[in-house]
Design a protein that fits this description.
Blueprint: H1 2-12, H2 18-28, H3 36-39, H4 54-58, E1 70-71, E2 74-75, H5 76-81, E3 89-90, E4 93-94, E5 96-97, H6 108-121, H7 131-151, E6 159-162, H8 165-177, E7 186-190, H9 199-208, E8 211-215, H10 225-230, E9 236-242, H11 254-263, E10 267-271, H12 283-286, E11 290-294, E12 305-309, H13 311-316, E13 327-330, E14 335-337, H14 351-367, H15 369-387, E15 393-396, E16 407-410, H16 415-424, E17 427-428, E18 430-432, H17 437-441, E19 448-450, H18 459-475
Parallel strand pairs: 5-17, 7-8, 7-9, 9-10, 10-11
Antiparallel strand pairs: 1-2, 3-4, 6-12, 11-12, 13-14, 15-16, 18-19
The structure holds pyridoxal-5'-phosphate.
């Protein structure tokens, strides 16, 4: 049984006993009888979807008025009610989702958009004369237009759908950069990169004899711009950098990095995987050459993401994969390719997920990214201040400009142990290397514990996190 199993696991980690957990549950969730589902033999009910209104009855957080109760014009409780997954318990505890940097939860409007697609529109796109093909094509192309608008791109044709940031970076590396590389050429990265923005460059560097040059950060985790500029020279062929570090939360001054690269005639790729859901982007104002993001990090489904590229650069790039959709004409002697973005979209894409991405961008736009940033920033500052009061806790990444990520380690506690303890409280955080080993090793670490914030999180959840960490460090 689920509840029994999780208790069993906890005991084997030397974590709180069943009686202690019951005591805590009673404190945080006074209206519940702890483990009643187990007693009744109906533990699956714990995981069954609940009516949205039940959340308020059950949660120790939303039932209290929030100290910062609104994101723009939207009340925080009503925002939370848009996300059905938040309305569940893990064992006796209300789920607290602080793993937003790994993936975000989905609002009902996105879930509904997927259902609607499969109920009324499902078809392959572009290739048929029937009504459903037209509906599916409209849904897909409308999502492209919404993505372009969201990024401030000049046209929908500058957006290619990809599976996510990783695929977008691989595409640019293989199709745009590799054909230009020769032995001794250089690609500039930063120490903050996610593995997805290291490994594709490393592979093409190994294949061509090119070299990677890596910009350092200061002790707060911010890029040292003067050092960055020194990495450029006549051999530099490309520069790729993240907008927000997924391990530290640093907001990188991408305007400056783009303009330094451009002053050397070097094209750039911005990895917006961790910024797209927090910071308004405008690729035209940034003069960005390429930019990638993943839908699932901005409340959209997995399996869909976008690559923005300046039109002339997308035209200049080689094809990525061959197959259906990306061709204009095929004989056994030669193939004529479609123009971008179809040129990069071989095979059947994630059509429903693209429609879901459009719905997610609508949802975020209806709340306003500026409002989201302001609310999340208040949570981040509060969280950082409070975390520092936990005995033995060290925050990793203290740049002046940060968003959404609170990475830390605690003296005497492995990251895994902290993560498992928090899980026993219903709090989901990531512990480990976060696919950013060079960034963490720069701070002498192999991993950290990483709560990451979205605009459906609350101050009460931060308090609960801090209380839980205090309990861990007090008790063990
Ligand atoms: N870049 C950054 C900064 C990320 O945080 C991530 C994922 O966590 C990625 C790239 C890769 O994203 P995906 O796995 O969705 O392709």
């Amino acid at each position: 049984m689920t509840t029994a199993n999780s208790l069993y696991d906890l005991a084997s980690y030397g974590l709180p006993s069943e009686a202690e957990l019951e005591k805590l549950a009673a404190r945080y969730f006074p209206e519940l009888t702890p483990f009643e589902s187990e007693a009744s033999g109906a533990d699956l009910k714990t995981y069954a979807p609940k009516a949205l209104g039940d959340y308020e009855k059950e949660s120790a957080y939303v039932s209290k008025p929030s100290r910062y109760g609104a994101v723009g014009a939207r009340n925080i409780d009503s925002i939370r009610a848009d996300f059905p997954i938040l309305n569940q318990r893990l064992g006796a505890n209300q789920l607290v989702w602080f793993d937003n940097a790994a993936t975000t939860q989905k609002p009902q409007s996105v879930i509904d958009r997927l259902s609607y697609f499969y109920a009324y529109e499902n078809s392959n796109i572009h290739r048929a004369a029937h009504d459903l093909a037209a509906r599916a094509t409209d849904a897909y192309e409308e999502a492209r237009l919404k993505t372009a608008r969201f990024l401030g791109a000049p046209s929908a044709e500058s957006i290619a759908f990809v599976r996510g940031s990783t695929e977008g970076i691989n595409l640019v590396a293989r199709s745009f950069v590799k054909p230009k590389l020769k032995e001794g050429d250089e690609i500039v990265l930063t120490v903050l990169e996610h593995h997805a923005n290291i490994v594709p460059w490393q592979i093409i560097a190994q294949e061509t004899g090119a070299l990677l040059r890596v910009a350092p950060v200061d002790e707060s985790g911010q890029i040292i711009l003067s050092q960055y500029a020194k990495l450029f020279n006549s051999r530099t062929k490309f520069a790729a950098f993240t907008h927000v570090s997924n391990a530290l939360g640093t907001i990188v001054p991408i305007e400056a990095l783009v303009s330094i690269a451009h002053s050397y005639g070097v094209k750039t790729l911005i990895d917006a995987a961790q910024s797209v859901s927090h910071i308004p982007l405008n690729v035209a104002a940034l003069d960005a050459d390429f930019l990638v993001f993943s839908g699932h990090k901005i409340y959209a489904p997995t399996g869909i993401g976008a690559l923005y590229g300046k039109r002339e650069l997308l035209e200049e790039a080689d094809v990525y994969q061959g197959g259906g959709n990306m061709i204009a004409d095929v004989t056994f002697e030669r193939t004529i390719y479609q123009k971008p973005p179809a040129k990069f979209e071989a095979g059947t894409g994630s059509i429903a997920d693209a429609a879901g991405l459009g719905a997610a961008l609508d949802y975020v736009s209806s709340i306003g990214l500026e409002n989201i940033f302001a609310y999340e920033h208040a949570l981040l500052e509060y969280g950082a201040r409070e975390l520092k009061t936990v005995r033995g806790l060290r925050l990793i990444g203290t740049a002046d400009h940060k968003t959404s990520i609170l990475s830390f380690v605690i003296d005497g506690f492995s990251n895994e142990r902290v993560g498992k303890f928090l899980n026993s409280k219903g709090i989901a955080v990531r512990s480990g290397h976060h696919c950013a080993q060079p960034a963490l090793r720069n701070f002498g670490l192999e991993g950290s514990v990483r709560p990451s914030i979205a605009f459906y999180n609350t101050f009460e959840e931060i308090d609960y996190l801090i209380e839980s960490l205090r309990e861990l460090t007090r008790t063990f």
